[in-house]
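Example record used in the benchmark description.
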Amino acid sequence: DYVTIRDLAIDSKAATGGTAISIGDGADYFLIDNVTIVDSDSQGITIHGAPSLTGGIVQNCVILGADNNGIQIEMDGGSYSYHIKIINNHITSCGSNGIYLSSSGTGNYYTTISGNTIVSCGANGMYLREMYNGTVDSNVCMWNTQDGIEISTAEFCSINGNSFSKNVQHGISGVNTDFCVYDSNNLQGNDSGNSETYDGINLDASSVGVIISNNICYGNSVQRRGISNDGMQAVITGNYCRDNDYNGIYCNATDCTISNNRLYDNSQAGAGGYDEMYLDSGADRANISNNTIGSPGNSSESCIYAASGTHDLLIQGNWLNDGMGSGIELAGNQNCN
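Model output (structure tokens):
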């Protein structure tokens, strides 16, 4: 316990299959501080083993060109990580993910990932699996080959105040994330190859009760949608979605609340081709209130479009202006107010 590794430079490009720093069984409350790692032949830093590991910190490190993940937590089966902090590191050009939390053990609890810069990695900026009550804040992830961050199988996590920009796929991808909060993030110019496939924030159908609030989803005419939600009981509030290819907000899940958002000048993929807010056929019992929605008159079609098959919608108190089509278009809906 209490091992400290600091103020080192490690150049491992001549190694075969090796990780630059490996923290293993029972090394609780370790500290890795101010280490530069160049060209690791596997992971830059790995935290692993059994029994469970508590209280370690990786901070102020520079990892350049690790062949696999930059920083990885991968516990043995039946073990978990607890209160690990990964803060203020710079990770560039890794072959896989910048930061990776594995699902190999029983979970990663109360992990803090803060203030890191992750650039030009071959997979995701961050790929966080089996994360519970974790915090991801004030990170920058740019120019990564997949998502800025994918968080998968998570509960009660906070993803706040980050910048996920110009990644090839989604800025934020939430997969099976329950009761998590995505707040005050900057999502700009993701889907950088303009494939019309990836979004600023994308939430899948296995997610429940997520709050998406106060984010800026500025598409730069490349992101498909500012926010795309398939997760039931989501609250989407206070976001600013502008200049995305398709919609500012898309929802295809039941019992969602979409309120106090600002949507402007979306449908950049084609004038009149898409709507500022699109409620697909699964968006039953949605509450759409107090949103400010408009366009310059030459981009989006309707301000709010509800597809055929949606029912029991409540649409009230919205300010709708200057779309090329309708303010509100209801396509064969039932029981809408």
